[in-house]
Write a structure and sequence with these properties.
By secondary structure, this protein is of the alpha/beta class. Helix 6 (121-130) packs across helix 7 (156-174). The protein has 17 helices and 19 strands. The longest helix is centred in the middle third of the chain and has 19 residues, at 156-174. The protein binds ligand BES, manganese (II) ion and zinc ion. Residues 248, 251, 269, 330-331 line the site of zinc ion.
């Protein structure tokens, strides 16, 4: 399946077809691959033919994470590959151990010979697929990697669907702002809608004022590409889920200009939008029995004579007034109008995802997706699901006593409380003011992996989408 739905030229589309994140469909000629957990190693070696166990011992194979060994036959050709998955303790410090091996294997086709021995087999196989991701839009394609035939006991299509959703998220985030402005983000959403027969409605430019999205307009009006609200709907029966994603295609900070170091990565400020689009692709591919709506305020927070200013007071769609104390706290403004619209439809659950605050990154670092919800049952379902699919999340508090921090003097709300205490919490409380219903969950994600890890190269990364997908049946009761 072609997952990147942006404005690709022909050769880039071809590349996508040649390098999809899929399993091998080969039926013969594959080499056996054994994936060994260190705690299984002794028993496993004992059960092998003498020349195999001798070779592994001679090479001091210890089944460490990423350890790969090819075992030759009597002609000196590989007869099998053995890779290490580490110990329970070393596995607890990371994820996707099988992915660590993939890059080191020769570019041949393998089949997993001992699938029944591998803990968390689905996650390991998803990691294998994700290890095949590389962002090649602006360079020669990466060299081919080892291929794997999916074990028959595993739902290969589902894993390929998850990988395709994650690839979409990564491609959208990795694409620089010059090629992923509001126009391109709209085009990507249009393509996704087309691919799955979803409907889409776009409100652009001055129509944002006419249709009452004043804060989306205010944040985005200084940019060359007009601000807009993307509204995609899919499915006509079942519980209603509305996803809202922050689509700030570049965040200069506005008139409260970010210093260079802080601006460097701000092409990823549409990471919330990219993540909800990846999740939407998974939901639609898997034909989940729900009604899905995706709302994306797509803007660029730019600097110009008509930019919104510190001290301005904006009246939001919901009617609440907001004093702008920092034009760099723009995400909560565009999300607020989108959330107000989301609620008018009375869905069963609203979930927002946004690269909303630097404070969230300081609090939990780049690996964990912090989320806020009023519901203990949803939090438990999400945390359990996250664990099962190796997409870690961490609950944060909607801490009522901090409500006063977002109330300034001369407006209903302050977009950037002085002092910055609990910056991620106050941002979440701000958003909650625009959603009166209780069934609201908010993710303050980072969307970026600063150091390469198995299945997660340095660069864009989805956070929370797979955990949500896994939790949805419990959360929405379908
Ligand atoms: N997009 C940023 C948040 C961000 C920064 C996410 C770095 C990930 C990494 C957001 O628009 C922002 O600038 N937030 C400010 C808010 C502050 C001015 C209240 C922040 O976090 O510093
Ligand atoms: Mn900002
Ligand atoms: Zn931002």
């Amino acid at each position: 399946m072609q997952s990147f739905a942006g404005r690709l030229n022909e050769s880039q589309q071809l590349k996508d077809e040649y390098m999809p994140l899929t399993f091998s469909k080969a039926t013969n000629g594959s080499l056996p691959l054994y994936a060994i957990q260190a705690e299984q190693l002794d028993n496993w070696i004992k059960a092998q033919p003498k020349e195999v166990s001798a070779w592994l011992k001679a090479n001091a194979f210890a089944a460490n994470i990423g350890e790969v060994i090819l075992v030759p036959n009597s002609k000196g050709m590989p007869q099998m590959a053995v890779v290490g998955l580490g110990t329970p303790a070393t596995r607890s410090r990371g994820r996707f151990e099988l992915a660590a091996a993939r890059a080191k294997l020769p570019a041949q086709t393998f089949h997993l010979e001992n699938a029944q021995d591998v803990d968390g087999l689905d996650v390991q196989l998803l990691g294998w697929l994700l290890a095949g991701y590389s962002f090649d839009r602006y360079r020669k394609p990466a060299t081919p990697m080892a291929d794997l035939i999916c074990p028959e006991t595993v739902d290969a299509t589902r894993l390929e669907t998850l990988a395709a959703g994650e690839k979409l998220t990564r491609d959208l985030i990795n694409t620089p702002a010059a090629d992923m402005g509001p126009d391109a983000l709209e085009a990507a959403t249009q393509s996704l809608a087309e691919m799955f027969g979803a409907s889409i409605h776009v409100t652009k430019g001055d129509d944002l004022l006419i249709d009452n999205f004043p804060m989306i307009h205010a944040v985005g009006r200084a940019a060359e590409q007009t601000p807009r609200l993307l509204d995609m709907r899919w499915g006509d029966t079942g519980p209603k889920l509305t996803l809202v994603g922050k689509g700030v295609c570049f965040d200069t900070g506005g008139l409260n200009l970010k210093p260079g170091g802080s601006m460097a990565l701000m092409k990823k400020d549409m990471g919330g939008a990219a993540t909800v689009l990846g999740l939407a692709q998974m939901v639609m591919s898997l034909k989940l029995p729900i009604q899905l709506r995706v709302l994306i305020p797509a803007v660029e927070n730019a600097v110009s004579g008509n930019a919104f200013r510190p001290g301005d007071i904006l009246t939001s769609r919901k009617g609440l007034t907001v004093e702008i104390n920092n034009t760099d706290a723009e995400g909560r403004l565009v999300l607020a109008d989108a959330l107000a619209l989301a609620e008018e439809d009375a869905p069963d659950q609203i979930i927002s995802m946004a690269t909303l605050t630097g404070a969230a990154r300081v609090a939990v670092g780049p690996d964990l997706a912090p989320f806020y919800t009023n519901s203990d049952t949803l939090a438990a379902a999400l945390t359990g699901a996250a664990d099962r699919v190796a997409d870690p999340v961490w609950r944060m508090p909607f801490w009522d006593p901090y409500e006063k921090m977002i109330e300034p003097g001369i407006a209903d709300l302050d977009n950037a409380p002085a002092g910055g205490f609990a910056g991620s919490i106050t941002a979440a409380l701000f958003l909650r003011r625009f959603v009166d219903m209780d069934a609201y969950t908010h993710f303050d994600i980072y969307g970026w992996n600063p150091t390469a890890a198995p299945a997660r190269p340095k660069g864009a990364v989805g956070m929370g989408a797979r955990a949500l997908l896994e939790a949805l049946p419990e959360v929405l009761e379908f």
